[in-house]
Amino acid sequence: MNSRICGTGLILIALLMLARAPASVHGQTDDEGDDLLISGRMEIIHRQNITGRIRENSNEKSRFYFNNIFLNLEGSLGEKADFIIEYQPLTSDLYLLGGYLTIAEALEGIGLEEADERKIQIDELISARIRELDRASEKASFERAQISFFIGDRFGIKLGRVRNPFGFWDDYSLFRNLSALKTDPVSLGVALRRADLGFVAFGERAGIAYELGLLQGQNAFTNKDVDNFKDAVLKLERRLGRLDLAANLYLHDIGQDAEPSNAFGLSYRYRATYNLTLLGEFITIDNEDLDISTRGFYIQGNYDLSDHLADGLRWNMFFETYDSDLLDIDLEEGLDYRFAGTYFQASTGFVYAYNRNIDLGAKLLSGADEEGDPFFKLAVKIDAKF
């Protein structure tokens, strides 16, 4: 791990030197403009669990995450094409598992004292998915490495390692991926919030923006196809003044004997005022092969307090309900809890833009698990861009 961090440091230093170099070193002249851009971002997070451990297989109640480093190279390839390479020399389980981290760890070893064949199958699948993502967090990888072609004014194609266009990519939380619904790698078979090998066609017709993708269908950052099945995703979006509405459909492992698992989502973004933005998603997932249904929604808001308290200060909130047959499997017998089988989480926090390149943040998280046991967490963060 130490050699890996040292290597990461050398890469950072090299890129910082390039970023400060003259324009000609970047492969451009004064006449060419900003055709090539080198940038980066890193997150440092300290997370404190007040009511439990960070991970089930560890005694830690707090952890310092040198969470995520992105090194970006992007530019144009002529008038109708551009590219982006988003390299991650270092990431963490917090980034890959996101909001599903708390749920996934609690589900390992579910009710195996009186286990039937289905419980054993699901338990093995949960463990395999967690180990898969944990292994991925120990390796350098490319999150995105794509080329975009623009064909006409209203149509284009992205090829390579692309982001799944289902719903929103980031949320307003300090972690950017707090939603358990979007980071669940088990119910659908893959997490909805992920990058994957494939292509996405995008454009607009009759006032409706669309994205249609064909993806490899893998959770981890692997660059090989391990089966003959593919995933398809469709997003349709319409803007109505200050309101954006979208419908999303995802089909996983098309071509297998069983019906492909699927996810359907509705999302909205409402720009209530210049300072306040509200958005959210409703998602339902059905997996006939495992006989699992998962459903829920999240809502969130972001309010710019620059005009009221301090320039660059923002307040955000997030609330999510996650209900799944995965949670029902491990409920205690005779449990007297009205919302048994449903996981709730809520958070509120502030982010302060210290300058153009550094954001500081703090957040309080709370909620209740599927059996009604409460949890409380704190997190502070430094987000640096260069």
Element layout with pairings:
Blueprint (H helix, E strand, L loop, with lengths): L1 H18 L16 E14 L12 E15 L4 E10 L2 H5 L3 H7 L9 H20 L4 E10 L4 E9 L16 H4 L11 E11 L2 E8 L14 E11 L2 E12 L6 E11 L4 E12 L4 E13 L8 E12 H4 L13 E12 L4 E11 L5 E12 L1
Antiparallel strand pairs: 1-2, 1-16, 2-3, 3-4, 4-5, 5-6, 6-7, 7-8, 8-9, 9-10, 10-11, 11-12, 12-13, 13-14, 14-15, 15-16
Q: Which blocks of ≥5 consecutive residues have pLDDT under 50?
A: 1-33
Which structural class is indicated by helix and strand composition? alpha+beta
CATH overall fold name: Porin
Average pLDDT value?
Answer: 86
Fraction of residues in β-strands: over 45%
How many helices? The count is 6
Total number of strands: 16
- Spell out the helices and strands N to C: HEEEHHHEEHEEEEEEEEHEEE
Percent range for helical residues? Answer: 10-25%
Q: Numbering strands along the chain, what is their spatial order in the largest sheet?
A: 1-2-3-4-5-6-7-8-9-10-11-12-13-14-15-16
**Envelope shape:** globular
Q: CATH homologous superfamily - what is it?
A: Porin
Provide a descriptive summary of the structure in words.
This protein is α+β, with helices and mostly antiparallel strands and 386 residues long. The protein has one domain (2-27, 35-385): Porin (Beta Barrel), CATH 2.40.160.10. It is built from 6 helices and 16 strands. The protein has a 16-stranded antiparallel β-barrel. It is globular, with a radius of gyration of 22 Å.
